[in-house]
Design a protein that fits this description.
- The complex is a heterotrimer of chains A (about 350), B (about 675) and C (about 190).
- By secondary structure, chain A is mainly alpha-helical.
- Helix content of chain A is about 65%, strand content about 0%.
- Chain A has one domain (about 1-340).
- The mean pLDDT of chain A is about 85.
- By secondary structure, chain B is an alpha/beta fold.
- In chain B, helix 21 links the parallel strand 23 and strand 24 (about 585).
- In chain B, helix 2 packs antiparallel against helix 3 (about 110-115), helix 9 packs parallel to helix 22 (about 620-630) and helix 19 (about 525-535) crosses helix 20 (about 555-560).
- With about 190 residues, chain C is an alpha+beta fold.
- Chain C has a domain at about 85-180: Alpha-Beta Plaits, CATH 3.30.70.
- In chain C, about 20% of the residues lie in helices and about 10% in strands.
- Residues about 1-10 of chain C have low confidence and may be disordered.
- Classes of the chains: A mainly alpha (about 350), B alpha/beta (about 675), C alpha+beta (about 190).
- Chains in contact: A-C, B-C.
- At the A-C interface, helix 2, helix 11 and helix 12 of A face helix 1 of C.
């Protein structure tokens, strides 16, 4: 495998580096989720004219720790009608796919660290977007199995909604990326970043950006597309019957998915680690740039959640199929034509 | 009936009814302070009832002006209103404004009338007259002379109703006040009634002083069981405690009055043993119910010790089993008919013993009982008032049944009734001669005789003489004439009719006829003798302490000493209970009881529970029922109402009665159809 | 035009069922953008942006939360909080004479008064009687202030204290001593018009 990789990226990474990177990425992801959690709650508070959590630790900073601690120490229980194995497996699938997707987000270019060339990403595959969608499709099982195996009608309804929603918006999401891929002429995410050296794709692919973002909201089941959870109607949707650690896993996966979408948007549309106006900082700044851009997208996620009400189910479907999909198709077609004409 | 006009309405009312009463037929209210029909003729002292009558130049007092045909009366005309407002203003010149601290506040006619007919303002700014207050008029009554509006009601009561002539008005004008001669305490038998009569807060009850306001309390109607008069009362209840007793007007029983014993014994309510002698003995600790037995007790090492109900029951059952048939039972006078019936069944059917008694005077032959109780011979209480003459035989109504004393005085004062007294010796000497003497007094003659007339060895002879007297006067055939017995105990008549007699079952039936037990039951004195002789070993006392009975004390002491098992229902640890009872069940006070009692004239009255049982007290009937079931006898009673139903079924001449029919005023069984089931002398023979 | 029932000729009206006229009940229904219309898409975009602006404005404004236990809401002078019983300032005697009028006025039936008589040795209030027991069950009280109005001696007034929660219901039965005592912590007061 390493030989194949070398032929792709042009350098060789020792196995221990890869293991180390995997650990670092997992650790970073683990650290980021609580940050996003507290950021979301604080921001939602501010958006609504209140403080948000401010009792645990300085400025409430330790609130997520308290929450996680509480969830993890709770009793593990399951309904008598549930299917035991799948009930236990479903949150694991969710969290696994989210972490796996995180692996291909590039946080910087290949750096020379103590004489070893290291790419600041988990792995740079030549089929980046496909890898993403593949794991996105698997993530759907996390929700579907969770909802179905609970043996509860609310959970099942939420899961069915989730299934339909994911399938509907995955198509638009893929089509939205198509324009970028046409322009960059590569499926490697680092390649796409490099291709944005002149101009970030948010400018030429603005429509694609919007579509991807909206579809991203839907894919992560965030407001205004949080119909799978819909706490007001389905008491929590697919995760109704989950508590304690398992519920925490779902929660964790949801926020990790937000980060993944933010990472992908950053990489694909916002120039990854690149800075505008030709500024070329030293290599260690790259991850900071990426994290900053990701935080902007995450902020947008939270902002939208604070603003928009949940869609009705028919609105969700008609918007996905009648607006986003045609728009994404048109965008891909137009880009293809332009690419062919200009080359 | 006449027709007159009041406030523009045509009203039909009885002729010569006072305008105040006649107006009520037309739903017109004329305010009054001094007017009270129970007190006799109106005096027109307060002037509150001034009305305008067309054709009479000056305003007239409605309380003393009889309604006449065609009269046109105005109570709302300008002149009448001005007069009413002026009277209220006048009465309030010196009336202090201390309603918040006055016990009458909230149930005060002066407040109501000021609100309804007063002007709302006063022109008097001068300082009010002041007296030292409150003064104790007696141990039980406080007088606040500032509040008095000089309506004379209390003075009239003292002089014309109870005729103790102690209350007088002294001084003149604004300085007048109610007092007794030389400041002596107002001590008589019926003093408490002036508290209820007072239309302002001038006369208040000292025990009730500041205990509650009218909106803090609940009223509960019941019947006082402290003496055979069985006056109807309203119990004032606050926080599950009876804190006041008021008269409840029932013309056929108490005429709206209540004696001081009934009114002020409430701190010890229910504790009070049946006889007057016991009343004196009732410990002062009984104040506020302290000293009341509220838990079951058994004798352990010579001392009574509080135990659980289970333990007490087990102990009682074991004792009764040991005694077997050699057990006697005595029901006290405050027991209800139901309790008596169930006790008799427990003894006759459960233990197989015929020795059941409730009669203090000893038992008579069954035929004499039947003859004395014969429906057509029975006089009503109201007959005492309207009879031509009343013969009081060997009794002292003011001690035995106080409220009858007021009735006799009323008869003499208002209806010219002749009151004659005779002793037992006079009766025994010759009933015919006595009848001859009485014959001149008139046709309607009521003989008021006390149960003790028939006590002692020649009791039967006295009873026969009494019947001969009744026969000679043909009391059974004259409406409004008859015999009226004053039993020694409150419910003496009811217990007799319920079958708590050694020689009679329920409804004065012959127990031999039913074959339940041998008819040779012994009466109370007999039980004592047999106990003392060791013939009987067990004794069951239902709210009775034989040592409190004046008679046979020595025999009873020996009897109780000798008895192996004494089971007692008691409220207080009186001597006999304290020293001799082996098992003591705490018993209910009348305010807690459910059941019926029978008035000496045959009126069944209903006791209703006004307060909950204190401590772990249980209903008497349920204790008897449980004892019976442990002895293997199912009395088929699960509720108090079932006990009553069983009573009405068992006594033939109560047949068909229901608690609803008895209601608040009671029902005389002699006036019901079922009275025809009364066994006649002929049937018996 | 909703509700405008068409005029019908008199002969037709005999058989015609007249249309229901909603009159004032007509509600303006907000419809989704018409499908495919560019203008509608723009409108949706614009309204979303407006919504985002509105929520962002809240951040600029800052929180309006009062952080309660540390920061207390001041009450107006006529605020009806926990009751107080009063004494005469000169003699120190209680103003309450135990007349129970407050209990009569109380619509929630939460006041219990048991009166007793003053004696020369034990003088509690100036009148003949005083309240031996004065209890207010604050878990029942609806703070209507009728007791204050009913009191003929101004002995009971509504105070300003509103921090009355407790871990035990029985702690909410305030006795006479508690009602006579000054509250441990005074509620902040705000002036009229502030």
């Amino acid at each position: 495998m390493s030989v194949g990789l070398m032929s792709l990226v042009g350098y060789y990474e020792p196995v221990w580096i890869q293991i180390l990177k995997a650990l670092v990425i997992f650790a970073v992801a683990l650290q980021l989720v609580p940050v996003v959690l507290i950021a979301e709650r604080k921001l939602l508070g501010r958006f609504q004219g209140r403080y948000g959590p401010n009792r645990v630790g300085p400025y409430g900073a330790l609130q997520p720790m308290a929450d996680i601690l509480k969830l993890l120490t709770k009793e593990q229980f399951r309904p008598t009608t549930s299917v035991g194995l799948l009930f236990a497996l479903a949150p694991v699938i969710s969290i696994l796919t989210a972490v796996a997707a995180f692996a291909i987000i590039p946080f910087g270019d290949v750096q020379d660290i103590f004489g070893t060339k290291v790419g600041l990403y988990g792995v740079d595959v030549s089929i980046g977007p496909l890898y993403l969608f593949a794991f996105g499709a698997v993530a759907f099982y996390g929700i579907m199995l969770g909802g179905w195996s609970s043996g509860s009608k609310y959970s099942f309804l939420g899961a069915m909604r989730g299934a339909a929603q994911l399938i509907s918006y995955e198509v638009s999401q893929g089509l939205a990326l198509l324009g970028v891929i046409f322009t960059a002429q590569t499926l490697s995410l680092t390649g796409i970043v490099h291709a944005q050296a002149g101009m970030w794709y948010i400018v030429p692919q603005f429509v694609g950006f919007l579509i991807f973002l909206v579809a991203g909201f839907a894919e992560t089941n965030r407001a205004p597309f949080d119909l799978t959870e819909a706490d007001a109607e389905l008491v929590g949707g697919y995760n109704t019957e989950f508590g304690g650690g398992r519920f925490a896993s779902y929660y964790f996966a949801e926020y990790l998915n937000v980060l993944v979408v933010a990472g992908v948007v950053t990489t694909v549309f916002l120039g990854g680690w690149l800075l505008p106006f030709g500024i070329d900082p030293p290599g260690w700044v790259d991850p900071i740039v990426v994290l900053f851009k990701m935080s902007l997208i995450t902020f947008l996620f939270i902002w939208v959640r604070a603003t928009l009400p949940r869609l009705r189910y028919d609105q969700l479907m008609s918007f996905g199929w009648k607006v986003l999909l045609p728009l994404a198709t048109l965008n891909a077609l137009a880009t293809a034509v332009l690419v062919v004409v200009t080359h | 009936m006449i027709t007159f006009t009041i406030d523009g309405r045509e009203v039909r009312a009885p002729e010569n009814a006072m305008l105040v009463d006649a107006a009520k037929h037309g739903d017109v209210e004329i305010p009054v302070f001094c007017y009270e029909p129970k007190l006799g003729n109106p005096v027109g002292a307060c002037r509150m009832c001034l009305v305008e009558i067309e054709g009479i130049p000056k305003l007239q007092t409605g309380c003393s002006t009889p309604a006449k045909d065609g009269m046109v009366v105005h109570t709302q005309s300008e002149r009448a209103r001005v007069a009413q407002q002026a009277v209220v203003e006048f009465l309030l010149i010196n009336h202090p404004l201390d309603c918040p601290v006055c016990d009458k506040g909230g149930e005060c006619p002066l407040q109501d009338i000021t609100f309804g007919w007063g002007a709302g303002t006063s022109r008097f700014i001068e300082p009010k007259r002041h007296f030292v207050k409150p003064l104790a008029l007696s141990e039980r009554i406080a007088i606040d002379r500032e509040r008095c509006i000089l309506c004379y009601r209390c003075v009239r009561f003292s002089q014309e109703i109870s005729e103790d002539n102690q209350l007088v008005l002294v001084e003149r004008g604004a300085h007048s006040y109610v007092a007794t001669f030389d400041g002596h305490p107002y001590e008589a038998t019926f003093t408490g009634n002036i508290i209820e009569l007072c239309p302002v807060g001038a006369l208040t009850s000292r025990p009730y002083r500041f205990r509650a306001r009218p909106w803090d309390i609940e009223d509960a109607g019941s019947v006082c069981t402290l003496c055979p008069s069985q006056c109807n009362v309203t119990l004032t209840v606050r926080d599950e405690r009876v804190i006041r007793v008021l008269a409840r007007d029932n013309g056929e029983v108490d005429d709206g009055w209540l004696c001081d014993r009934g009114r002020f014994a409430y701190p010890a309510l229910g504790g009070l043993p049946a006889t007057a002698a016991a009343l004196a003995d009732a410990p002062a600790a009984a104040e506020n119910g302290a000293g009341r037995i509220t838990e079951p007790m058994i004798r352990d090492g010579g001392q009574l010790r509080v135990v659980s109900w289970e333990r007490a029951m087990t102990e009682a059952v074991a004792g009764l089993r040991r005694a077997g048939e050699r057990v006697g039972a005595i029901a006290g006078g405050q027991a209800t008919n139901e309790e008596g019936l169930l006790l008799a069944r427990l003894m006759r059917e459960g233990a197989g013993s015929p020795h059941v008694d409730s009669r203090a005077a000893g038992t008579l032959e069954l035929e004499l009982h039947l003859a004395l109780n014969e429906p057509r011979l029975q006089a009503r209480v109201s007959d005492l008032e309207f009879a031509h003459a009343v013969l009081v035989l060997e009794g002292d109504p003011i001690r035995d049944a106080p409220i009858l004393d007021l009735r006799l005085r009323k008869g003499v004062r208002r209806h010219g009734m002749k009151l004659i007294r005779a002793t037992r010796e006079e009766l025994l000497a010759g009933p015919r001669e006595l009848a001859d003497k009485l014959a001149g007094a008139g046709e309607e003659i009521v003989v008021l005789w006390a149960e003790r007339l028939t006590a002692g060895p020649d009791g039967s002879r006295a009873a026969a003489a009494l019947l001969e007297l009744a026969d000679a006067l043909s009391l059974g055939d004259v409406e409004g004439a008859g015999l009226l017995e004053i039993p020694a105990h409150t419910n003496g008549r009811g217990l007799r009719e319920a079958g708590v007699l050694p020689n009679a079952g329920p409804g004065l039936s012959d127990p031999a006829a039913t074959g339940d037990a041998s008819p040779t039951g012994r009466d109370a004195a007999g039980i004592a003798e047999e106990l003392a002789a060791g013939e009987l070993t067990g004794l069951y006392l239902l709210q009775s302490d034989p040592l409190l009975e004046p008679a046979d004390r020595e025999v009873w002491e020996r009897a109780l000493e000798r008895a192996a098992t004494v089971v007692a229902h008691a409220s207080f640890l009186t001597e006999g209970i304290r020293e001799h009872a082996d098992v003591v069940f705490p018993s209910e006070a009348y305010a807690e009881k459910e059941g019926t009692i029978t008035h000496p004239d045959g009126r069944l009255q209903r006791l209703r529970p006004a307060v909950a049982h204190p401590g772990s007290i249980r209903a008497e009937w349920s204790v008897i029922v449980e004892l019976a079931s442990r002895l293997g006898l199912d009395l088929e009673v699960l509720t108090g109402a079932m006990a009553s139903a069983q009573l009405f079924e068992s006594v033939p001449f109560y047949a068909g009665l229901t608690l609803e029919e008895i209601g608040g005023k009671g029902v005389r069984w002699q006036e019901r159809e079922a009275a025809g089931a009364y066994p006649t002398r002929e049937q018996l023979v | 035009m909703p509700g405008a029932a068409p005029e019908t000729s008199p002969e037709a009206s005999a058989v015609k069922v007249s249309l229901w006229d909603p009159g004032e009940d007509v509600v303006q229904v907000q419809r989704a953008p018409a499908p495919g219309a560019l203008r509608s898409a723009w409108r949706a975009f614009r309204e979303t942006a407006r919504g985002l602006r509105t929520t962002f404005g809240r951040i600029a404004e800052g929180p309006v939360t009062m952080e309660y236990p540390e920061e207390k809401v001041p009450v107006y002078p006529r605020f009806r909080g926990r009751h107080k019983l009063h004494r005469f300032e000169d003699t120190g005697l209680e103003k309450c004479v135990g007349c129970s009028l407050c209990a009569a006025a109380c619509p929630a039936d939460c006041i219990r008064v048991v009166a007793a008589e003053n004696t020369p040795e034990n003088r509690v209030s100036p009148g003949e009687r005083y309240a031996a027991v004065y209890e207010i069950n604050l878990s029942r009280c609806i703070f209507c202030g009728y007791c204050e109005v009913a009191c003929p001696f101004d002995a009971i007034t509504m105070g300003h204290e509103y921090e009355l929660s407790s871990y035990d219901r029985s702690d909410l039965i305030f006795t006479k001593e508690m009602l006579l005592a000054e509250p441990l912590e005074r509620a902040p007061l705000r002036n009229e018009g502030e």
